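Before a colleague's protein record goes any further, I have to sign it off. Thanks in advance; the entry in question is below:
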Amino acid sequence: MDHALKAVEDFLPTASPSGLPSLVGLSRDEIATVIADLDEPAFRAKQLWHWIYCRGARDFDEMTNVSKVLRAKLTEAWTLDRPAEVTAQTSEDGTRKWLLRFGDLNEAECVFIPDRRRGTVCLSSQVGCTLTCKFCHTGTQRLVRNLTAGEIVGQLIVARDAFNQWPSPTTERDITNVVMMGMGEPLYNYDNVAAALRILMDPEGLGMSRRKITLSTAGVVPAMQRCGEELGVNLAVSLHAVTDELRDEIVPLNRKYPIKDLLAACREYPGVNNARRITFEYVMLKDVNDSPAEARELARLLKPVHAKINLIPFNPWPGSVYETSTPKAVARFADILFDKGITATVRNPRGQDIMAACGQLKSASEKQRASAGG
């Protein structure tokens, strides 16, 4: 028992309402350590991995090929809890949004976005956000803390539970893609995000192809190369402006990593080529960044990069000072990019009626301040 609790300190897995740690989010090596600390044969680790990440087990008694003795040991020290659902909403267009509560009562949101050919789960990496992008609702919530690997993996498992998508992988899936585009800047929580994505990509577990996973960053330049080398997932870059002056204002991270440095990191991103391009996200803000001149400059900037552009009509949220570009302005912007040889698509807003669209996620969690006498 003492060894198992030591494992809790080492791995910091998600705590459950019972106060016991959850095995959800532990890596193969970490599960092997748990098994060793319980004085069980090493092959039991593979069994646990299969039940957690392939079968989606919620109770140790489901593990029919695991001995009753081991199941009893696990029940005393561990759980299989996922993040708790606080609310689950479904949009008129089929988009789903979950507000999830973690063991310390902090909360974050994740979203499922259906499409004709795929279903995408958008995962959060932080409670709140490190950044303060002016057009983003999440950016108005100060960073509370990073999410653990277990809390990130747990979001996908909650979505799999909702669709009864077990065992995994299945031949036909409601969930086909994952994007790290929810609350937070993933590259400012790189170690936990990387640990979570490795679990997602394990072919004997959740079985997500790295080609079906996209990580979105506002441009944390020093971590981009590492992400490409170690994870090899698709990269999306939140650009949103073609001059440092404007980007400094609406994406303050640009003051640290300006456009020139960001684009250089994009050109050097491992594995990028014409068949596997970087997606540049560009939110369309009325009379701010949507002029024909800016479209032409965007095409010029991205010409040396293997790039495609996702134009995102701004999704309003309470208190925002921005307006959405007109459909005519968006279409004109896209046409100019196309004429310049740049692939550009216009994102169809999804889940606006439940505040689940791009840039609308936020929770009520706040960073707790130490008391005056603490």
Observations:
- Confidence is low (pLDDT under 50) at residues 1-13, 369-374.
